[in-house]
Amino acid sequence: MRILFTGGSGKAGRYVVADLVARGHRVLNLDLVPAGIPGAFDLTTDLTDAGQVFSAMSGITGFDELDAGMGDERSQALKFDAVIHFAAIARIQLRPDPECFRINTVSTYNVLEAAVKLGVPKIMFASSETTYGVCFASGEVRPQYIPVDEEHPTVPQDAYAMSKVCNEACGRSFHARSGAEIYALRLNNVIEPHEYAELAPRWRVDAACRRRNIFGYIDTRDLSDFVDRALAADGLGYQVFNVANGDSSVGMSSADVAATFYDDVPVTRAMGEFETFYAIDKAKEMLGFDPKSRWRDVS
Fold first, then answer.
1. Is 98 exposed, middle or buried (0-12, 13-18, 19+ CB in 10 A)?
2. What H or E segment, with its residue span, contains residue 162?
3. Would you list the DSSP string of 191-227?
4. Cβ distance 244 to 216 under 8 Å?
5. Exposed e or buried b per residue across 146-174, where buried means at least 16 C-beta atoms within 10 angstroms of its C-beta
6. CA torsion sign, 261 to 263 to 264 to 269?
7. For 34, how many CA atoms within 13 A lie in the half-sphere containing its CB?
8. Which residues contact 51 (CB under 8 A, 6 or more apart)?
9. What is the pLDDT along the chain (299 residues), one digit of tens a residue?
10. Going by C-beta distance under 8 Å and a sequence separation of 6 or more, which residues neighbour residue 15?
11. Alpha helix stretches (DSSP H) within 234-276
């Protein structure tokens, strides 16, 4: 596939881009900083500028496409098969709140609009666990029920999560306008493989440190697998998916976590011994997503 990716220089994006290239896809990465991933192409792009986004999405990915005669802007060969939008201000406290909200919403709108107008059939964008209002809340906010699935209300307090909720509304509306396949990926706390050596010892003994992440995580390898499965899916329309690993990120059993941290929160179904509270049932059923337990064997 010919894939346009945004944010491929970021924490999650660089793993997904490398995996896409390894699977044989042609990937153009739009970011403010080049990723330099072997086999991928970089184009420095300000996604808050609609003209830059439209130009990048309707142009060549590399010089070899000129040799193949694809440089004509009227060429159907220039059409991307998929757009995957991960670029964003990654959390609060990186930019002032209005800038975080502006950049995240405007860039996502520009990417969605250009992709739809250029007839891209598959569009994915990174939403967030923060939409559920737990992660960046002032004080402690508990879920309305556990495990937290995609039907859980999304009423956050912070600018970052507000931007993600707005982006999901735009995704739904662009699907209604165009019929394009558009998926919002509510990513749980993204963890790189090398981070477990530092994180695992604390996760085992200090469950409280994972409360704001709903005691969950998503490994970059399993996130890459999710994206691959979502690219292969067809006919799903507009969908929101929780994306997490199947096990929790604490040494405490899920029953003990529920008793300790969620004692007054309704439990909607039986849970496995170490099952994530960030429910991925929908991704399992619709995409066959089956992420591995990644951290429990790390010494």
1. exposed
2. helix 159-178
3. E-GGGHHHHHHHHHH-GGGGGGGTT--EEHHHHHHHH
4. yes
5. bbbbbebebebebbbbbbbbebbebbbeb
6. positive
7. 8
8. none
9. 999 999 999 999 999 999 999 999 999 999 999 999 999 999 999 999 999 999 999 999 999 998 877 766 656 677 999 999 999 999 999 999 999 999 999 999 999 999 999 999 999 999 999 999 999 999 999 999 999 999 999 999 999 999 999 999 999 999 999 999 999 999 999 999 999 999 999 999 999 999 999 999 999 999 999 999 999 999 999 999 999 999 999 999 999 999 999 999 999 999 999 999 999 999 999 999 999 999 998 86
10. 192, 220, 221, 223, 224
11. 254-261
Closest-CA residue to 28 (of 167, 37, 231)? 37
The owner of tokens 């929790």 is: 248
Cα four-point dihedral sign 202, 206, 211, 216: positive
| 191-219 burial code (b ≥16 CB/10 A, e <16) | beeebbeebbeebeeebeebbbbbbbbbb
Spell out the domains of the chain, with CATH numbers in brackets: 2-192+219-247+277-287 (3.40.50.720)
| pLDDT at residue number 66 | 87
Structure tokens, 177: 């306008």
Are 24 and 12 a contacting pair, CB within 8 Å? no
Assigned token pair, 26: 């042609």
